[in-house]
Design brief:
- The structure holds two protein chains of two kinds.
- Chain A is mostly helical.
- Chain A is built from ten helices and no strands.
- Chain B has nine helices and nine strands.
């Protein structure tokens, strides 16, 4: 086994020794070329989606509304207003953002694992001018697209019910897109570690669900002990939820939250690429 | 030469040395076969030629270009038929071919004509709108072959092309490969099926433990080993032990 201590590159001799990076697998393509080519993977995803969307849409539409009504209506009779909002109005923006989170999580966990290990879809695509970077950027772009689509579908009935007090809530779609990109990176990183499908239970139980329950979706995080609240401030879903909540009442002061989300995207996307490249191309 | 390799080595990140100092040249328009036992390094060679991953050291040139620097340009001229039928199971035969042509940026109008032409070539016009999961394994293999030549490649790479095929489908595949070669396409194939190597290849390289142990035309191999068929040559060259 080669240890990390023997990590070295030998490009001069025409080869690559030691650990192979994502760039080594891109055959000289610039990031811009791969960004451009990623649209082809996105188009493949769209083609598959057009055949399978009916079932997926119903689930994606039904699930967040289930949370909203079961918890929102059920608890609202016991809870007074929070920051001037009824309980169901308080949780609606958070439910909207978590729609983006779930969409991206699904697209980049089971779906990618299946394509790598069962369908061998990427192996087929790598026999074309595409490379791992254009493939994974395309997958992330698709996850972001699904995040936007699902949020829009859920936003319409919530808006018609009068749960948002400002048209600025439409900006939450951009916030949800960023949350979708971040969770697509998380999903890809998790997939790079997972060795069997049922391991996703660990990812869901110990990562996704705690973030979902402790990100201010269902209650203000000021209610939490200070130590826990501090950690929650560091999580991306919290910033997405807070931004959406501010927008729902017409407050555009979301810059800090958006900058945080953008920084997370910039940090996580290359990490996700690096991790998954080695699983897609065993070199 | 369309492919030129000098002192090629490949060590996987796991430490396995798959290729050890291989050198070979593949001429334009020839059908070149790699034969060898499982784990000999044939698939690794194919993957390096098809720009799947870089070599550890040595020089490799495909169509005069460096795979480390011009992979996209090289792959645009390659057609690859993998060992597995890795078609998109959610899509129809037509959609699989259409999307694949998209990756090669085949112009839309030409794409439709090409798909019709290929479906006729592999005898699957009647399965155009069938989902891939609804056709047999042999039919899927023919779709994979059609897919591999959708971009009219200069080099066609076939990894065990006859695997899982009935005799009729095998003959169809061989006929297509010969026709393509007659039109100037260089073909590189790996196979365990001696008859396939004898029928198709102009030259055959026997690969064992990451090295080329013998290289000649099929007739040359037979004469050099005083054998009547390639299987005898294979067993003499590789040994008859099951050890790998």
């Amino acid at each position: 086994m080669i240890s990390l201590r023997t990590y070295k590159k030998n490009r001069g001799a025409g080869g690559v020794e030691g650990r192979i990076s994502t760039a080594d697998l891109c055959g000289g393509n610039s990031i811009w070329k791969d960004l451009y080519d990623s649209r082809l993977l996105w188009m493949r995803q769209l083609t598959v989606f057009r055949k399978t969307y009916k079932v997926g849409l119903v689930i994606r539409f039904f699930e967040p509304l289930l949370y909203l009504f079961a918890i929102g209506l059920g608890i609202s009779t016991y809870v007074g207003k929070i920051n001037g909002l009824t309980y169901i109005e308080f949780i609606a923006p958070g439910i909207l953002i978590t729609t983006a989170m779930w969409a991206a999580t699904y697209e980049t966990s089971f779906a990618i694992y299946t394509k790598i290990h069962y369908q061998r879809t990427y192996e087929a695509i790598l026999a074309t001018p595409m490379n791992v970077r254009s493939i994974i950027i395309g997958e992330m772009a698709w996850a972001g697209t699904k995040a936007i689509l699902n949020m829009t579908i859920v936003m319409i009935p919530l808006a018609l019910m009068g749960l948002f007090h400002s048209p600025y809530i439409i900006v939450a779609i951009f916030v949800g897109f960023l949350v979708g990109l971040i969770y697509s990176a998380f999903g890809i990183i998790a997939t790079s570690f997972i060795r069997a499908m049922d391991h996703y239970g660990i990812y869901s139980t110990f990562f996704i669900m705690p973030l979902f329950m402790f990100s201010g979706v269902f209650y203000p995080i000021e209610n939490l002990p200070n130590v826990l609240a501090f950690f929650v401030y560091l999580t991306p879903l919290y910033h997405g939820v807070e931004a959406a909540r501010l927008l729902s009442v017409g407050d555009l002061g979301i810059m800090l939250h958006v900058v945080y989300l953008l920084v997370m995207v910039v940090l996580l996307v290359p990490l996700a690429l690096r991790r998954i490249s080695g699983r897609i191309v065993v070199a | 030469m369309v492919v030129s390799a000098k002192n090629l080595n490949k060590r996987y990140s796991s430490g396995t040395e798959a290729i050890r100092g291989i050198s070979f040249d593949i001429k334009k328009g020839e059908i070149y076969g790699f034969l060898g036992p499982n784990g000999a390094g044939k698939s690794t060679l194919i993957k390096m030629i098809s720009c799947y991953f870089p070599a550890t050291s040595g020089e490799l040139s495909v169509l005069g270009l460096d795979p480390n620097k011009k992979a996209s340009k090289i792959k645009r001229c390659l057609g690859i038929m993998p060992q597995d039928n890795n078609l998109d199971p959610d899509l129809t035969v037509f959609e699989n071919l259409y999307l694949y042509a998209n990756y090669f940026s085949v112009p839309r109008k030409k794409r439709l004509e090409r798909i019709d032409e290929l479906l006729k070539l592999v005898g699957l016009e009647h399965k155009r709108n069938a989902r891939v999961t609804q056709i047999s394994g042999g039919q899927q293999r023919r779709v994979v072959l059609a897919r591999s030549i959708i971009n009219e490649p200069k080099i066609l790479i076939l990894d065990e092309p006859s695997a899982g095929l009935d005799p009729h489908s095998r003959q169809v595949v061989w006929s297509i490969v010969r026709d393509l070669n007659a039109k100037g396409c260089t073909v590189i194939l790996t196979t365990h099926y001696m008859k396939e190597a004898e029928e198709l290849c102009h030259r055959i390289a026997f690969v064992d433990a990451g090295k080329i142990v013998a290289l000649d035309t099929p007739e040359g191999h037979l004469a050099a080993n005083n054998a009547t068929d390639l299987e005898d040559v294979y067993l003499k060259t590789m040994g008859s032990s099951l050890e790998e």
